[in-house]
TrEMBL record:
Taxon lineage: Eukaryota, Sar, Stramenopiles, Ochrophyta, Bacillariophyta
Protein name as catalogued: Uncharacterized protein
Species assigned in the record: Chaetoceros debilis
């Protein structure tokens, strides 16, 4: 079982979209990535603030550990947006050359 669809499947999915849908999808993925980063900062701040009184400076490590999944996980949506825009450019150039 894979974590993500194959590159060919994702490319076919992007090809089936219109230009506007591709731009909208990329914008949505960028927003998802930014949301994950902001949620990570909230998690980091909440963990540090909540645990500081009981474990002191170790709360920084606990906060980073809790937030790192969100921060590093945001790479997925950012990569999907980048990939979609690259494929959109290729598809649009191919249409212009065909005309």
């Amino acid at each position: 079982m894979t974590c993500r669809e194959s590159k060919e499947f994702r490319h076919q999915k992007v090809e089936a979209m219109t230009h506007e849908e591709r731009l909208n999808y990329a914008k949505k993925m960028n927003a998802a990535g930014m949301g994950m980063i902001v949620a990570g900062f909230g998690t980091f701040g909440g963990m540090c603030g909540g645990l500081w009184g009981s474990i002191g400076a170790g709360a920084i490590g606990a906060g980073f550990g809790a937030a790192s999944g969100l921060w590093f996980g945001s790479c997925g949506p950012f990569q999907a947006a980048k990939e979609t825009l690259e494929w959109d450019k290729e598809i649009e150039e191919g249409k212009k050359e065909a005309v």
